[in-house]
Amino acid sequence: MIHGDFDKAVGNIAKLVGRDQGGSLKVAMSMAIIRANLRDIHRFLKLGHSLGDREINFRVGPILSYQGLPAKAELHDLLAEAYGFIEEQGVK
Hints:
Layout: H1 6-18, E1 28-32, H2 41-50, E2 55-59, H3 72-89
Helix pairs in contact: 2-3
């Protein structure tokens, strides 16, 4: 979020996860992939995993333009890195 406090939000999620008793809390994150964050997919996955996330949903916003995205080969590399992490960590 433009006016949000990312570090505070992440810290609050970490506190919540840390206080979960019995493992009943389910953490799930969702990422809308846009030009501005495309190269952050792997970092997003690592962050989610570090916070106990075991399920990640990808989507591309239908109203967003595909103009200005990196070349197809780079997109494939970025997604391959992301899916490699998902498989390594056993994330859905």
